[in-house]
Amino acid sequence: MSIANRIGDIASGIYENALLEEIKKYKVPNHLGIITDGNRRYARSIGLSENEGHVKGKDKLEEVLDWSRDIGIKIVTVYAFSTENFKRKKNEVNFLFQLINDSLNDLLKDERIYKNEINVNVIGDIGALPEYLKKTIAEIQDATKNFDKFKFNLAIGYGGRQEIINAVKNIAMDVCRGKFGPDDIDEKIFRNYLYDNTLSDPDLILRTSGEERISNFLLWQSAYSELYFSDVNWPELKKIDFLRAILSYQSRKRRFGE
Predict the structure, then answer these.
(1) What are the pLDDT digits (tens) for 158-213?
(2) Is 85 noted as a catalytic residue in this protein?
(3) pTM of the model
(4) Which of 36, 46, 133, 134 is an S-S bond match for 234, by CB 3.0 to 4.6 Å?
(5) Looking at the domain assignment, is residue 146 inside a domain?
(6) pLDDT at 10 (0 to 100)
(7) Among 5, 9, 30, 37, which one carries the catalytic annotation?
(8) Tally of structural domains, the chain
(9) Distance CA 84, CA 51 (A)
């Protein structure tokens, strides 16, 4: 490593520590939503295959979960596979399913899950997922269902509009059954029909790769979420980038329409 690179690393470390000290002074997000965008662009930019980019993205997620826990975030929800992702090439979709499956199996064997009592949950319409993946999802959810120190949610086969449509259909059926009347429907009742009615709204949604939209992610739940867009592709996200997002959140005054 060159002297210039060493100096750069030292400077980055000092800056990172300064950011951490500043963050400790203020309240961190309770629930962080993440749109992990840019795996394929990252791979193409350095001559890797797109599948290798997804593997790098999986590795980065493990880092970010550790960073989140370290600063006191209690819930992280990650947009892992959207309803739109089904339109990608079959080989890529199959690779993603296998990568997710392998990652969940790794979590089942990871002692940190049990030591830190991490609850792992999947939200989305999993009906179109392969049977082996549905089986693994059931296993990890069952193994961690009683843990509550940290909640890690994976949105798989997820689309915010579809979640709302599904909720409306189920509400309509219950109205027809006489469970309640149309005038009884309020936000509390509606929330009960979402994929996970215990999930609190995200305080902050972080998206990488420079795109500035939420792409059908947690549409109902993100009504008052703060948004932060990072220019770096997901696998390239550094701890400094992550801390900047948290510090930006802390600098904002959340009014919730007031």
Answers:
(1) 999 999 999 999 999 999 999 999 999 999 999 999 999 999 999 999 999 999 99
(2) yes
(3) 0.93
(4) 36
(5) yes
(6) 60
(7) 37
(8) 1
(9) 18
Please determine, for residue 5, whether its predicted confidence score (pLDDT) is greater than 60: no
Q: Is 162 contained in some domain?
A: yes
Concerning whether 183 is annotated as a catalytic residue, the answer is: no
pLDDT band per the 50, 70, 90 thresholds, residue 3: low
Cα separation, 8 vs 254, whole angstroms: 35
Specify the DSSP class assigned to residue 98. Answer: H
Number of neighbours of residue 162 by Cβ within 10 angstroms: 17
CATH code, domain with 240:
3.40.1180.10
Q: What is the pLDDT at residue 224?
A: 95
Q: Are 29 and 257 in contact (CB under 8 A)?
A: no
Q: Give the Cα separation of 151 and 56 in Å (integer).
A: 23
For 151, phi then psi, to 5°, come to -115, 120
Q: Is residue 104 part of a domain?
A: yes
Domain enclosing residue 71, as ranges: 30-250
Distance of alpha carbon 106 from alpha carbon 103, whole angstroms: 5
Q: Could you say which of 51, 85, 196, 201 is catalytic?
A: 85
